């Protein structure tokens, strides 16, 4: 093992040398187990000097690492001899540079510090000449390298090849330092010794995040076996909770810092043999809870070590995920929304101006933007008035942007458009394609936001463990965080198709012929999707809105069926949702009809008969009326939000608060009205409360005003990672809004609760529809 004189070990980011010390301890134990003699200390000294190496870029930990190695050797009765210039193999160097011989003339450092030049040359010898067999360590987890990409030689460029064109991944952070260290280690083993072991504990995002698909594909190709010990403990993905809801701190937690670090971690071991295997073997196990460190150590003593790991099968249809996918085999055979559309999906709009171009009130936004565009108002005046468009942001110099904007465009009321910021939370936005204003205006997307068209919205993967529904439909311009983490919009119909890029990097008109005029709507369906509809004898699609949306409304209905979400939760969370397609036209049309009902309920800009328009359905009337404590009439001044539903966080971000709500049983009259009304829908009493919940909430705006009888599952209802009602309220806190809630806004919460209740009461029909579809599945053709 590590004690073999032919094994060279490198920690490329050794810090204070803890890993190197443990390697030397392991060598010492191995030598003692072999019957160590009086030369053991000499062997350990030689290992520390000539084959156990560390790189460190910061002087202080570099000095401590040397000190730790010297203390270890001293404890065994040996010392490094300064006169003979003996030293541990730890070098002050940037591990991300210098692996290839320089192509230009050798740079000379100042003669006043010749030691630095000697240090550089000694490190370069290890980097270029030593046959490293084991690379281990704990690389840093941040995206700052301290040197230019050119100096590093584009270390991770290989992991970015095809991300956009092949995999459709447009937003990624592969410049995280730990990814660079993986690439350094991989290259040293695969291109250097040709065999060896890499073992890092790192951020666990590489295991399944779409950004790392090319990296995973390469690691799976270049190594023969991969062992993953996932230590979890992530604040974002799991909220630092186990699947059972118990605390799940970081493996780096201590008595003084019980949370440890914020990101989840994993130990990844990559093994490459001299004689390669035909297929990589990936083994994976999870560790959860407060005792994961002890559990990890105990696992080393298992007699049948490999039996405690699950087998993962990384392949193209699961983006080479290293996590085992607990999905039914047929799930991965179903198409994703990306395979159903012809034009490449477009990421939602990015304002990135701290909400300066958006507002809940149209008039307030108009007034703000008129002042911004007023040539008579100087920059100094705007700045003094704290105009939100005077705040700098990423890639946005506010003053330069205003100068460029005033020179290029003028204010127009027509540019104030409705904007879907969050589910059920549509606001006003001032939209202009002029880039200094919006961070990403996505003109190709907004060009498809014409009257009569809708967007099917999905996301590549879940960011949060309790994401809820992963798809929705909107007729408004969608924000890129409409679903977390990054939403993409698929226009159901296309106009000016020649300007839209296809998934095959062609153009839309190439797919459908030149006989289609730019103004005639084209169904945004791939050739395979069109062939599917043709097999069901669905007639002409282009120019026919109802037929164009059949597949998309069906996908919406499937994506909101509780049985579908429950049975395929693992697959849905790690990828685009896969949608089963029925083999019969009647079944597709029935499913699409359910989807259309959902679409109306999800789109608060469209009246929903019996919910927010006309006479309210009997079973919904008891749900969520705005009420007054002790009864009586509410005065408008009593609609101030003081219950603490939201507060301003860092950078002006609105953070949710605890608010005030009281859970209680339904009253007899509430229960009777809901049951009697639902009976007209064919729902039994048991079905009503199985879908709405057995208890209700009184949700308080303040001590005086509250919304009564909000069923618990209505309150908990979540889309794309957002708890809808709580999210909406967090942005209407009095101190954030700067005013009391208007009566129509208070009534909107009632309508919101009733819309969600109506959706939940559709769930039995959605489940029955899903079951009927998967009973007889269309076989989606794949290359």
How would you describe this protein?
With 783 residues, the chain is of the alpha+beta class. It is 33% helix and 14% strand. It contains 27 helices and 27 strands. The chain has a nine-stranded mixed beta sheet with strand order 3-2-1-4-5-7-6-8-9, sandwiched between helices. It has a four-stranded antiparallel beta sheet with strand order 10-17-14-15, covered by helices on one side. It is globular and about 95 Å long. Residues 504-516 have low confidence and may be disordered.
Strand arrangement, major sheet: 3-2-1-4-5-7-6-8-9
Oligomer status: single chain
Principal-axes geometry comes out as globular
> Percent range for helical residues?
25-40%
Query: What structural class is derived from the secondary structure elements?
Result: alpha+beta
How large is the radius of gyration?
31 Å
Binned strand content: 5-15%
- The parts where pLDDT drops under 50 for at least 5 residues are 504-516
Termini gap: 45 Å
The total of helices stands at 27
């Amino acid at each position: 093992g590590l004690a073999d004189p032919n094994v060279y070990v490198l920690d490329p980011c050794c810090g204070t040398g803890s890993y190197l010390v443990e390697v030397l301890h392991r060598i010492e134990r191995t030598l003692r187990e072999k019957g160590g003699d009086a030369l053991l200390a000499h062997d350990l000294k030689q290992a520390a000097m000539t084959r156990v190496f560390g790189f460190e870029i910061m002087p202080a930990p570099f000095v401590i690492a040397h000190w730790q190695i010297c203390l270890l050797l001293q404890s065994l009765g040996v010392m490094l001899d300064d006169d003979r210039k003996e030293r541990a193999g730890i070098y002050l160097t940037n591990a991300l540079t210098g692996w290839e011989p320089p192509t230009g003339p050798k740079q000379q450092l100042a003669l006043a510090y010749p030691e630095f030049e000697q240090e550089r040359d000694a490190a370069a010898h290890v980097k270029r000449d030593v046959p490293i067999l084991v690379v281990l360590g704990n690389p840093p987890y941040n995206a700052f390298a301290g040197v230019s990409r050119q100096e590093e030689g584009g270390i991770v460029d290989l992991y970015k090849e095809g991300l956009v064109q092949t995999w459709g991944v447009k937003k990624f952070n592969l410049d995280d330092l730990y990814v660079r260290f993986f690439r350094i280690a991989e290259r040293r083993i695969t291109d250097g010794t040709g065999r060896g072991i890499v073992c890092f504990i790192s951020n666990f995002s590489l295991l399944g995040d779409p950004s790392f698909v090319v990296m995973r594909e390469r690691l799976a190709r270049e190594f023969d076996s991969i062992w993953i010990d996932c230590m979890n403990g992530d604040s974002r993905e799991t909220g630092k909770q186990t699947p059972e809801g118990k605390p799940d701190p970081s493996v780096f937690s201590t008595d003084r810092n019980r949370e440890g670090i914020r990101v989840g971690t994993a130990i990844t071991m990559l093994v490459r043999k001299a004689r390669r295997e035909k297929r990589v073997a990936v083994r994976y196990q999870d560790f959860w809870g407060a005792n994961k460190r002890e559990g990890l150590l105990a696992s080393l003593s298992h007699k049948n070590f490999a039996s405690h790991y699950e087998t993962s099968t990384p392949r193209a249809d699961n983006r080479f995920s290293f996590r085992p996918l607990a999905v039914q085999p047929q799930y991965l055979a179903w198409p994703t929304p990306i395979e159903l559309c012809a034009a490449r999906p477009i990421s939602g709009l990015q304002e990135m101006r701290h909400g300066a171009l958006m507002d809940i009130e149209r008039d307030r936004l108009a007034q703000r933007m008129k002042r911004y565009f007023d040539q008579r108002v100087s920059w100094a005046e705007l700045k003094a008035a704290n105009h939100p468009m005077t705040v700098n942001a990423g890639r946005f110099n506010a003053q330069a942007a205003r100068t460029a904007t005033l020179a290029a465009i003028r204010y127009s009321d027509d540019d104030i458009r409705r904007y879907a910021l969050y589910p059920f939370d549509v606001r006003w936005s001032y939209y202009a394609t002029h880039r200094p204003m919006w961070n990403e205006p996505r003109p190709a997307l907004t060009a498809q936001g014409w009257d009569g068209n809708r967007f099917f919205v999905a996301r590549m993967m879940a960011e949060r463990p309790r994401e809820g529904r992963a798809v929705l439909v909107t007729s408004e311009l969608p924000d890129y965080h409409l679903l977390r983490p990054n939403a993409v919009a698929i226009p159901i119909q296309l106009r000016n198709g020649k300007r839209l890029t296809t998934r095959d990097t062609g153009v839309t008109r190439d797919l459908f012929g030149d006989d289609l005029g730019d103004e005639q709507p084209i169904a945004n369906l791939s050739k395979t999707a069109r062939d599917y509809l043709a097999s069901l004898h669905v007639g002409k699609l282009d120019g026919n809105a109802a037929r164009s949306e059949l597949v998309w409304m069906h996908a919406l209905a499937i994506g909101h069926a509780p049985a579908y979400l429950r049975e395929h939760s693992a697959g849905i969370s790690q990828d685009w949702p896969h949608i089963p397609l029925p083999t019969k036209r009647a079944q597709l049309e029935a499913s699409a009809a359910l989807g259309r009902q959902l679409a109306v309920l999800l789109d608060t800009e469209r009246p929903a008969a019996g919910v927010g328009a006309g006479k309210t359905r009997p079973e919904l009337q008891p749900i969520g009326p705005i009420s007054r404590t002790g009864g009586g009439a509410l005065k408008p001044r009593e609609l101030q939000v003081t219950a603490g539903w939201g507060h301003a966080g860092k950078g002006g971000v609105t953070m949710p608060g605890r608010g005030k709500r009281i859970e209680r049983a339904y009253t007899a009259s509430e229960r009777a009205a809901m049951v009697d009304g639902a009976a007209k829908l064919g729902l039994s009493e048991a079905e009503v409360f199985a879908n709405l919940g057995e208890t209700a909430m009184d949700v308080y705006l303040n001590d005086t005003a509250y919304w009564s009888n909000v069923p618990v599952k209505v309150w908990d209802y979540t889309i794309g990672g957002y708890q809808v009602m709580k999210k909406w309220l967090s942005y209407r806190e009095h101190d954030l809004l700067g005013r009391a809630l208007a009566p129509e806004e208070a009534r909107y919460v009632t309508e919101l609760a009733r819309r969600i209740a109506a959706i939940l009461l559709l769930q039995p029909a959605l489940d029955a529809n899903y079951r009927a579809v998967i009973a007889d599945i269309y076989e989606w053709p794949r290359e």
